[in-house]
Design goal:
Elements (H helix, E strand, L loop, with lengths): L2 H26 L17 H11 L6 E5 L8 H8 L3 E3 L7 H15 L5 E6 L12 H5 L1 H4 L9 H8 L3 H16 L6 E3 L5 E3 H9 L4 H13 L11 H16 L3 E6 L4 H10 L2 H15 L6 E4 L21 H13 L9 H4 L6
Parallel strand pairs: 1-2, 1-3, 3-6, 6-7
Antiparallel strand pairs: 4-5
């Protein structure tokens, strides 16, 4: 066999192999990224859940929370109890700035309502300059249609992204669970969009939870990629963010933005192993600059002391626990003191101003 024929045969084998892997990933669909429903996915896309929960609400929320998983436990019930305003948590996993724009346009154009207020938990790496569009955003057309900027079909992009050993392992897990039963769900999203983590509740109830141990055991696997390869605030993601601000301005939406916090151990890790501190300062300067053009309030909660939080009030390195989440809610509501809201209702009668 000549070299030319061998090369062509080898190339065809590779192409067919890749095609078969894509087809298997599409059919099994372990992360609920495609339309196929032959198998039960390991997880249901939070983006799809939030879109459908918003659609099915029997009320128009006056306050909507946007951002990543770092604000998934900010509780609309607490907001309503303190303000008599109905709220909804529309945060999703690994949200970048394009998700902010997508959700506000989805509410406006598809659902026909906009809230009075939007709260944004802003991750610095939501401006990541070396991170692709999230495949789960590509899969949720009701959101992706609001921000699409590529000529390639989103399904094809998701299929290419699925070409990884971890994705194939997820395929195998789905097949195994199909025949042997799925494990009990460790998390749930309530009708108001709040993430409930049964695994953390059980661990804390057992008295065995240790935040330092948990961070050290999961840091390299779970956190190292947040700022990996990030050198600056991405121009395209800044464009998405400014379009989001523009929509809020045009529709008189009161906007409160806060930079999300890190546990001190993770902050030290990022400081030593990434451009975190430089990027944090760039974000502060950027937000302050934007205030000259857009009416919004922003605050830096990157350190828990800024909202009077507990240093160890985390469930891991970058997700606050219920106590710190409630403190963030109360601190954001205290911004409205100038509008005549009685802060004793937010913090209790012991508050001294």
């Amino acid at each position: 066999m000549g070299r030319g024929k061998f090369f062509i045969g080898f190339l065809l084998t590779v192409i067919i192999g890749i095609g078969l892997i894509m087809a298997i990933n599409y059919i099994i669909n372990p992360k609920s990224e495609f339309k196929t429903t032959f198998f039960q996915p390991l997880v249901r896309s939070a983006r799809t859940q939030k879109v459908e929960l918003l659609r099915d609400l029997n009320y128009s929320p006056q306050i909507v929370i946007l951002g990543s998983s770092h604000v998934l436990n900010l509780d609309p019930e607490l907001i309503q109890n303190l303000t008599n305003k109905r709220a909804f948590n529309a945060a999703v996993y690994f949200a970048n700035t394009e998700e902010l724009l997508a959700f506000v346009l989805y509410m406006k154009e598809d659902l026909g309502f906009l809230p009075e207020e939007i709260w944004v938990g802003l991750d610095i790496d939501s401006f990541h300059d070396n991170r692709k569009l999230d495949s789960r955003l590509l899969a949720e057309k009701r959101l992706y249609s609001k921000i699409k900027h590529t000529v390639l079909p989103p399904t094809f992009i998701s299929l290419v992204s699925s070409l990884s050993p971890s994705y194939i392992f997820d395929d195998l897990r789905v097949v195994y669970y199909t025949f042997n039963g799925y494990p009990e769900q460790k998390i749930n999203i309530t009708k108001k969009g709040v993430l409930v983590r049964y695994d953390m509740d059980a661990l804390k109830a057992s008295g065995e939870f240790n935040i330092d141990k948990r961070i050290n055991e999961t840091m390299m696997d779970s956190f190292k990629n947040r700022f990996s390869g990030m050198g600056k605030l991405d121009e395209k993601r800044k464009e998405y963010f400014e379009k989001f601000l523009s929509v809020c301005k045009e529709n008189d939406i009161e906007l409160k933005i806060f930079i999300t916090p890190l546990h001190k151990t993770l902050e030290e890790y990022f400081t030593e192993n990434s451009k975190y501190q430089e990027l944090l300062e760039d974000t502060r300067v950027y937000l302050s600059k934007l205030q000259k053009k857009y009416p919004f309030y922003w605050v830096d909660y990157s350190e828990v002391s800024s909202f009077f939080g507990a240093e160890d009030g985390f469930i891991d390195g970058d997700h606050v626990d219920e106590h710190n989440a409630d403190l963030i809610v109360r601190e954001l509501l205290s911004i409205d003191l100038k509008k005549g809201i009685n802060l004793s209702a937010l913090w209790g009668e012991s508050l001294v101003i």
